Amino acid sequence: HLTIVVPAYEEQERIHDSLRRLGHFLISLGYKTELIVVDDGSKPEGRKAAEESLAELPPEISRTFIQHEVN
After folding, report:
1. Residue 69: which pLDDT band, with cuts at 50, 70 and 90?
2. What is the DSSP letter of 41?
3. Are strands 2-8 and 61-68 parallel, antiparallel or unpaired?
4. Is 30 in contact with 1 (CB distance < 8 Å)?
5. What's the CA dihedral at 29, 14, 5, 9 to 10 degrees?
6. Whose CA is closest to 27, among 6, 4, 52, 7?
7. Closest by CA position to 37, among listed 25, 24, 55
């Protein structure tokens, strides 16, 4: 089992591509994986981009979104 934690703050411009690439890598491993995104007080645009990108990962990857209100 491999878990990767991705910290995010105002990452709306790059989070989608980063999580997509991580998703491809995790699937290629062939074993149970998990991706946790921790939003550290982003504005709504950054938070929404992180949540939507995480939701688009392949279903084989466990995923969690953690949100802190203040950075």
Report:
1. confident
2. S
3. unpaired
4. no
5. 180
6. 4
7. 55
The pLDDT assigned to 70 comes to 77
Q: What DSSP assignment string belongs to 6-23?
A: EEESS-TTTHHHHHHHHH
* Lookup result for tokens 């709504």: 44
Model pLDDT for residues 12-63, shown as the tens digit of each residue: 999 999 999 999 999 999 999 999 999 999 999 999 999 999 999 999 999 9
Specify whether the CB–CB gap between 25 and 55 falls below 8 A: no
Q: How far apart are CA 44 and CA 26, in angstroms?
A: 28
pTM check: above 0.85: yes
Beta-carbon contacts of 19 under 8 Å, excluding residues fewer than 6 positions away, are: 6, 35, 37, 53, 54, 56, 57
